[in-house]
Amino acid sequence: MANEVKIGDYIIIQKQNYKKLHKFNKSDSSISLGRDTINLKGLEGSPYFSTFKLLPKTSRKNKEFTIELADEAVKLKDEIDIKVSGNDNRNILDDGRSQKLSAADIETLKSDSNKASDIVETLISNSNTFHNKTEFSQDKYLRKKEKKYFEYFQVVKPNLRIISEIMYKLEPNKIQNLRIDTLSQIITTVNIHCEGNHLLYDSGSNGLVAAALLSVIGQNTTGKLIHMHPGNMSQKQALLAMNFPEEQMSRCVSVNVYSALRQFYQGCDTHKTADTEKSENGTEENPLKRKNDDDIEEHQSKKNKQDDENKPSDNINTNIDSETPRENKKPKWHFDNIAAAELLHKKMDSLVIACKEDPQNIFSELVTFVKPGRPFVIYYNVAEPLQQLYMTLKAQSNVAALKLSCNWMRNYQVLPDRTHPEVMMNASSGFLLSGYVLNK
Amino acid sequence: MSFRSYKDKIEEGDTAILYLSNNLYAIDVQPEMKNKKGELIENVYQTPFGALKVKTLIGAEYGSRVELSKGWGHVLQPTPELWSLTLPHRTQIIYTPDISMIMLQLDLVPGSIVLEAGTGSGSLTHALIRRVRPHGHVHTFDFHEHRSKVAQEEFMEHGIADFVTAKHRDVLADGFGEELNGKADAVFLDLPSPWVGVPHALAAIKDQGGRFCSFSPCIEQVQRTCLALQEYGFQEISTMEVLQTEIKVSRRTVPVRDLSFLKQKSSTSPVEEKPSSETSYVVGTWPQSTPGHTGYLTVATQPPYARSKAKKSKPENDDDKSSSENGDKMVIDETV
Ligand SMILES: C[S@@+](CC[C@H](N)C(=O)[O-])C[C@H]1O[C@@H](n2cnc3c(N)ncnc32)[C@H](O)[C@@H]1O
């Protein structure tokens, strides 16, 4: 991926610690950040990591902005000169009357000023208490205001780390609470790397697990991934957001689990043209399939609040999946099923399951495709189904080194003399059951 | 040679991992070994379940069962994860829970160039190599000459030497070397004063930017490293801890005590009853004792402009020392 923003790229817009995934699909596309709408004209062609300043289109009030390339984000603290501070807060009484401006005054101030520092400076000069506050609390106040009025954003290249963070923060339940540290364990537990054929069953991570595995399989390597899913269309959001080149993306074969296994066991689809097939098998299956596809898509775009720009990404899904019944031509999924079945016949080097269903049947069916000596891992967001599966597997003898584990992660605030764990932590990130397949 | 590619069968010269009721052993698959007198004798590996003639492993399929006089085990092909659990310790090592997160935080993919100091026992190095090959490269440094040499030999024996360069070098005193300036996608430090290495990381990371991570057991190390990262223009500085706990699964039978019969009068009125029946659950037991701390991971992004900015601001800093010592000045953006 090139180092400049191109049309068609997924990009990350980062405003302070807030990150948003956006499909940059035309040079003047707009993005909404909080209540603001920002026109991204001028972004195209700029190098990743560039900083842009938000410029109000008319006044700040209507919350529409254009952008201008900036050298770097100017910090409020550098723009505002604070002359005095107190030593401690013994004289500070928060009675809600320290601000001389009325709420209405502040509203006018906000919509009339074009610069964040003007607003904050006026607020400060009308505060009775600001200059009595300690330097520490002044700092804290400015940081709070900065968060509110911050006028800069940075454009960043998406990668697994950022996408995983964004998805977990935004809607953890959409990815089964799969937190970044647990995701990182999945990758290593099953030894995914540039080689080998890897099998994934995923029924609910918006493509995050597939994105993780494919990213460490890498560009211009030999590794392949079968991405099985239970629906008619795979969830690809995270996969698409990674901007994988075609060469890499094509080594991820996304297939419906029913079709792929039917193909494997019954071998009904062959490389014949659609015409001959129609006459042989009847036409029943295909129309049904298309219909369901549409349903899921609507469903998806309704549910998906990740980005207003989600429509285009759905369009992409459609495009990928509907190299569909053009005349005489078989849909892409038809060939994907055949490719997946062929890989399954060669046997797989790892198995990853991240599911919503009971993992028991899924595991016992899919494990038969894994070569002896190779690892597997199952992610589930509560422990009980995995405990049950553990007992079942213990009683059989086709796996070794069974291990049920749980990950824990804590972030820290590190500041001179004020270092401590973050006040809030993400306490939920599911469980992993892992082991190695044995030679029967 | 069994570290490089997937294999189906064990060959002479492989390292094979023997899994024996929750214990792991790394076995050098050589039919013969030298005894104390320097004579070649048959290689017999002693396990708690009896002796294993290593020769018999040759040709066996990975994942298959190995019979021992007092039981049986299974042989597995080594992965960096299994290696971390069986390798000979020459130093403290980093284990898989941290390793996994380190690699994800460093944005490593096949093709990445990553620098590591110190090499130590090569536990992390094996995982880094696996992640960045075939087009990437690991440059690993240790100022302990013997460790560096042993590590390099190990990479040769494991058949992965072409993806890694192990050098004997004091990275804090001498940096990563001219030839690596602007070459790295990521820099990782596991040594006692990582903050001293920050300017060297700054020099080594590519023009378009990259990632930094240091692993430190103590919070004081973290504080100094964060200050250095601020000073040199890194962004998204963040510190975290990750742990993994293994949960023991078992079926537990628990007695059921019935109290409801007490509502009615009955002929006998005991004060002590045997539990009336039993029920059973599959339970997960959290360990009595489990790792509670390994090290803090401090990660940061080096943006493309950090290097030129650091150059510009350097003379200033020298004149006006207070600006680099004013802790508050450094903290304003990255905390909330
Ligand atoms: C804890 S060990 C690293 C373990 C390693 N991460 C692993 O997982 O096996 C730290 C190593 O850093 C090396 N070291 C300490 N200071 C160094 C320096 N200034 N330059 C290079 N290596 C250094 C030590 O010799 C030691 O081998």
TrEMBL record, chain A:
Gene Ontology CC, one term: nucleus
One Gene Ontology biological process: tRNA methylation
Feature: compositional bias, Basic and acidic residues: 273-312, 323-332
The keyword Chaperone appears for this protein: no
Biased composition (Polar residues): 313-322
Subcellular location: Nucleus
Transmembrane segments: none
Lineage: superkingdom: Eukaryota
Keyword Nucleus: yes
Keywords per UniProt: Nucleus, tRNA processing
Region (Disordered): 273-332
Protein family per UniProt: Belongs to the TRM6/GCD10 family.
Protein name per its UniProtKB record: tRNA (adenine(58)-N(1))-methyltransferase non-catalytic subunit TRM6
Classification of source organism: Eukaryota, Metazoa, Ecdysozoa, Arthropoda, Hexapoda
UniProtKB/TrEMBL annotation, chain B:
Main location: nucleus
Segments of this protein annotated with the region Disordered: 264-336
Biased composition (Polar residues): 277-292
Record domain tRNA (adenine(58)-N(1))-methyltransferase catalytic subunit TRM61 C-terminal: where: 71-301
Compositional bias annotation for Basic and acidic residues: 313-336
Catalytic activity field: adenosine(58) in tRNA + S-adenosyl-L-methionine = N(1)-methyladenosine(58) in tRNA + S-adenosyl-L-homocysteine + H(+); an adenosine in mRNA + S-adenosyl-L-methionine = an N(1)-methyladenosine in mRNA + S-adenosyl-L-homocysteine + H(+)
Domain of life of the source: Eukaryota
InterPro entries, per database record: SAM-dependent_MTases_sf, TRM61_C, tRNA_MeTrfase_Gcd14
Sites where the protein binds S-adenosyl-L-methionine: 121-124, 142, 170, 190
GO cellular component: nucleus; tRNA (m1A) methyltransferase complex
Coiled-coil annotated spans: none
Class in the EC hierarchy, top level: transferase
Enzyme Commission code(s) on record: 2.1.1.220
Keyword tags: Methyltransferase, Nucleus, S-adenosyl-L-methionine, Transferase, tRNA processing
GO molecular function, one term: tRNA (adenine(58)-N1)-methyltransferase activity
Protein name, entry field: tRNA (adenine(58)-N(1))-methyltransferase catalytic subunit TRMT61A
Source organism (scientific name): Mythimna separata
